[in-house]
Design brief:
Layout (H helix, E strand, L loop, with lengths): L1 H14 L2 H22 L8 H6 L7 H4 L3 H10 L13 H15 L4
The protein binds heme C (HEC).
Heme C binds next to helix 2, helix 3, helix 5 and helix 6.
Length: 109
């Protein structure tokens, strides 16, 4: 599993440009420990839990156009069946996971 993580982080590295790289790498770790079971590796929500709960596809234009402030609000406080993370992730973690979501949105699903 260590190798797989290394490959993922390397991919995140090459998909992003210098400034957001560190944030996206941290964000990838957070995404893989908290979000991937519903949202899937590629953010499409194409997982058994994602389908059962109707997790939105991050590539959906309606989600792409949400501001970072909107995403912070949703990740902190939840929305419908999307759990709230304010008690588990601090503001920096949430920013980092948003940076990672942006890298997923800018790559092909
Ligand atoms: C238990 C399953 C589950 C987990 C775990 C989960 N989500 Fe979600 N998420 C959902 C569902 C369901 C929705 C759809 C909410 C809606 O719009 O009705 C959603 C929606 C979203 C959205 C889009 C908001 C919108 O416009 O609807 C974002 C962004 C998001 N989740 C981020 C995250 C992040 C980041 C994590 C990890 C920290 C995470 N989610 C963990 C189920 C989950």
């Amino acid at each position: 599993m260590k190798l797989r993580g290394t490959i993922l982080y390397s991919t995140a590295f090459f998909l992003t440009i210098a400034a957001p790289t560190f944030a996206a790498t941290k964000g990838s770790q957070i995404f893989h420990s908290h979000c991937v079971m519903c949202h899937g590796e590629d953010g499409t929500g194409n997982t058994p839990a994602g389908k059962a709960l109707k997790a939105v596809n991050f590539h959906n234009p309606a989600v792409v156009k949400l501001s970072d402030a909107d995403l912070t609000e949703i990740i902190s406080n939840g929305k419908n069946r999307m759990p709230a993370y304010a008690d588990r992730l601090d503001a920096t973690d949430i920013q980092n996971v948003i940076a990672y979501i942006r890298t997923l949105q800018s790559s092909k699903p």
